[in-house]
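testing teh design pipeline on a random one, pls ignore if ur not involved
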């Protein structure tokens, strides 16, 4: 694509903001009303940066001008998310079975790995370094933070209190030696887990920890005028780094839910604007390409490859387009439209159907003009659930919703074969389906306790109430107890297709955060975590969506603790140092107290 043709903004007669790139016009969210003509691409990017700054400054001025009284009137205490939706459709016996599995997994971690990142259930010891840190650095207890939202959901009060006390007394991000961690993993597990614990319990301590962590991570977004992040974060403090590194699409897009939630709870819109900026840039540059490649150049936003996939290396980017629209009370149609366009394109370009119609799913195109393959991956099996959520949420309606749901049900059937076709009944990490004979191969793969298949079962259950999905889920619980249960917890399997199986001696933190949570919700009443009011991040940590009556919801206890004065507008402003200087260039470092 020729950059010299420029990035322009203009408004049509209705006041809607559009972005044109290389002459193409595409509706984009309301990022400003500046009118520019005949700019070069560098000036266009400066305009984008300036417009983002106006949004941030205007938001701060809103608080200052209209006063704290309105905001305080809107702030509400957190409602417990477990109210019945009326006549309960919960399967209490199966819920109890999943809860017992969680208690067993947690007890093993408490006993043998407390404070470590994860449990080795067969060896009965802990391990560290799961956040991608150098030298196996520990101290963040990933399993504790990942498990808290599940413990709270299941009503395991004593276990949750034990986890809460550890976080309050031991969790610090002011590490003595500089440690490099994965921005992606740290954001979805730790930041997402802390925000979810806050939203579920109302305990301001969790928000204070989340804000401390977010302020140390946010400079990953700085360093280039594209606003695209660098996935290498450092603790205790991430510095703005200019680099030409390529970044995976999933890494770029999987922070909107967490940083926008942090912005909403603290009143500091810097977090949200920074998380949006790189994606706004990317969407403006590729307005007519809803399916992007897997790798993006950080400094220019150029897509580096022609692979097309909604699975590995791209998955949660597409997942968050829809969830971010729901999180924002379904107001900013930019994100919903981008998601819908991506699904339409995926169904047109990536969908494959076997000869006799038994299996339909999305494959991966290794190049733009190649045919999609017939591989079904566990990671890619989040997709039928995501499409079903689009129907549940009203992102699409009418005939298109029927089409989407039919596809989601078909792909769910294909994804269940990861489990149904193995000897243990547990999910191989990837299988191949012969499109002519419909035979399944490549079953000798590990079972890694991944959540995506049961996650999609949960969404399909909510969308259809077809008991088949609950029966499939229960077969997974039974297989877990038969083949993965150890004296000290649950492990994965080296090979899901061998009996007796060999343990991989690893209880993943996502098993506590996601797999067991989605299984529990699969059997729960629909009133448990209403999907219009709660949004799950990609680690299955639920945070509250911004409903109409809570569109300015801020945790005033946090503001009071941070400033010493309840509802002080200056406290909101003082949480950002040199706001105007910060927004002068997107590449400048971000300073948050």
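output:
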């Amino acid at each position: 694509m020729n950059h010299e043709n420029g990035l322009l903004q203009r408004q049509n007669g209705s006041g809607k903001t559009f972005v044109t790139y290389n002459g193409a016009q595409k509706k984009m969210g309301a990022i400003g009303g500046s009118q520019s003509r005949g700019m070069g691409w560098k000036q266009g990017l400066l305009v984008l940066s300036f417009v983002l700054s106006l949004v941030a400054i205007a938001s701060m001025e809103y608080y200052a001008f209209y006063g704290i009284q309105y905001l305080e009137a809107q702030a509400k205490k957190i409602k417990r998310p477990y109210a019945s939706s009326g006549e309960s459709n919960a399967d209490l016996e199966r819920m109890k079975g999943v809860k017992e599995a969680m208690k067993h997994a947690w007890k093993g971690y408490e006993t043998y790995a407390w404070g470590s990142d994860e449990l080795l259930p067969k060896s009965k010891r802990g391990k560290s370094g799961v956040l991608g840190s150098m030298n196996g650095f520990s101290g963040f207890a990933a399993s504790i933070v990942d498990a808290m939202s599940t413990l709270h959901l299941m009503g395991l009060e004593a276990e949750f209190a034990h986890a809460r006390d550890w976080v309050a007394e031991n969790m610090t991000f002011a590490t003595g030696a500089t440690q490099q961690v994965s921005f992606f993993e740290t954001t979805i597990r730790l930041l997402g887990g802390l925000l979810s614990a806050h939203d579920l319990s109302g305990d301001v301590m969790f928000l204070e920890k989340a804000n401390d962590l977010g302020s140390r991570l946010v400079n990953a977004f700085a360093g280039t005028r594209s606003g695209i992040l660098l996935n290498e974060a450092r603790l205790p403090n991430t510095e703005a780094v200019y680099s030409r590194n390529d970044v995976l699409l999933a890494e770029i897009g999987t922070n909107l839910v967490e940083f926008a939630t942090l912005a909403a709870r603290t009143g500091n819109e810097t977090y949200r604007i920074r998380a949006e900026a790189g994606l706004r840039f990317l969407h403006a540059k590729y307005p007519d390409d809803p399916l992007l490649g897997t790798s993006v150049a950080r400094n220019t936003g150029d897509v580096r490859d022609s692979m097309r996939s909604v699975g590995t290396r791209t998955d949660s980017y597409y997942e968050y387009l829809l969830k971010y629209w729901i999180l924002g009370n379904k107001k900013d149609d930019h994100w919903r439209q981008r998601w819908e366009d991506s699904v339409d394109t995926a169904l047109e370009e990536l969908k494959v159907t076997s000869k006799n119609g038994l299996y339909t799913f999305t494959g991966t195109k290794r190049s733009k003009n190649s045919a999609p393959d017939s591989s079904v991956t566990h990671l890619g099996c989040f997709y039928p659930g995501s499409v079903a959520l689009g129907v549940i949420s009203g992102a699409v309606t009418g005939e298109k919703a029927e089409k989407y749901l039919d596809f989601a049900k078909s792909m769910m059937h294909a994804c269940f074969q990861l489990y149904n076709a193995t000897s243990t009944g547990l999910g191989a990490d990837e299988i191949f389906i012969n499109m002519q004979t419909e035979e399944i191969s490549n079953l000798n793969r590990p079972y890694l306790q991944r959540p995506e298949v049961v996650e999609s079962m949960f969404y399909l259950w909510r969308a259809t109430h077809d008991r088949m999905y609950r029966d499939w889920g229960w077969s997974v619980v039974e297989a877990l107890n038969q083949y993965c249960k150890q004296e000290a917890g649950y492990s994965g399997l080296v090979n899901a297709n061998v009996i007796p199986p060999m343990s991989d001696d690893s209880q993943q933190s996502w098993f506590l955060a996601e797999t067991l949570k989605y299984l529990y919700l699969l059997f729960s009443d629909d009133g448990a975590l209403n999907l219009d009011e709660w949004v799950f991040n990609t680690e299955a940590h639920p945070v509250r969506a911004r409903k109409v009556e809570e569109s300015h919801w801020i945790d005033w206890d946090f503001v009071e603790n941070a400033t010493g004065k309840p509802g002080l507008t200056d406290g909101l402003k003082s949480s950002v140092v040199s706001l105007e200087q910060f927004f002068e260039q997107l590449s400048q470092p971000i300073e948050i107290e």
